[in-house]
Design a protein that fits this description.
Blueprint: E1 2-5, H1 13-24, E2 30-33, H2 40-48, E3 51-54, E4 67-70, H3 77-85, E5 89-92, H4 96-110, E6 114-118, H5 124-130, E7 137-139, H6 142-155, E8 161-165, H7 171-182, E9 189-190, H8 196-209, E10 214-218, H9 224-235, E11 239-243, E12 258-263, H10 269-280, E13 289-292, H11 297-301, E14 309-312
Parallel strand pairs: 1-12, 2-3, 2-4, 4-5, 6-7, 6-8, 8-9, 10-11, 10-12
Antiparallel strand pairs: 13-14
Bound molecules: iron/sulfur cluster.
Length: 317
Amino acid sequence: MKVIRAKSLGYCMGVRRAVSIAEAQIGKRVYTMGPLIHNPRVLEDLQQQGVQTLETSDTSADLHEAVVIIRAHGVTPRQERQLVEQGSRLVDATCLRVKASQMKAKALAESGYALFLAGEKHHGELIGIQGYAPDCLLVENVEEAAASAATLYANTPAAKTALLGQTTISVDEYSLIAQAIRRYFPNLEVIDTICGATRDRQNALKELCHLVDAIIVAGGQNSANTQRLFAIARAAGKAAWLVESAAELPDTLTAYQSIGLSAGASTPDKVIDEIEQALQHFEVRSSRLHLVPETNATSALQCHKPKPTLVPQTNAR
Ligand code: SF4
């Protein structure tokens, strides 16, 4: 089986920085506020070395003199204040790009803009940014953007508007959301908050889809940017799987001659290497099978592992 790695994959600058900040604190009484990054393997490793994860809602923990690391996705200013009041020593591992989004949201809100915030409403990054602009309008998709813009227009047609997005939102979706709002507010200011690391991994995957029969995306099921990559592969009409480890690779991969390997920005190098090595040991059986990949991107977003449909070739030799 031929395995081709995406030109850009795996750890981004923000995640690498957060993990190394946490590793530097090992040996002390140390917690992270929420999961440091969205990768269960990395969190398990850190936990085994004494780094514990606090739930963001946990206000009862004894944090006096403990080190508390703020996760890469950031937290709200209120949560930060609370941690200081609990007596902890804060170490900020918020990704610098996320920090920039938080500051931009705050500045726009203070300047009187009606701010649209696009992304996953329940994602820690968006919750953190919202803490800096509490009146912002959260929109998850084009339909919600159009509905929010229509309501705002009905109440405040002369509003100054701006759009800010989750760093991991897909480039295409962000542009469609901007278009939907511009129908009501042509002067909408669109802030480019999509992280270069996200964009690079998405573009590299799109290129890879032209070169291979199927795609493996390595990363945490709860990682937004990993899920985006998975959705992009499915939207490109490829059979695709999102796996957290080599053990999750499906046997049906033997039906493919070539596999593309991509990985989310929170997937460590060792997991990617492990999966690549395992793929190289798969033996291809595809000469007897013709594959019809599923193309329903909606089911992919629900994070089920898709099963390709196998159709025996009648004229196989
Ligand atoms: S994907 Fe970008 S914004 Fe998110 S942690 Fe990595 S570098 Fe920061």
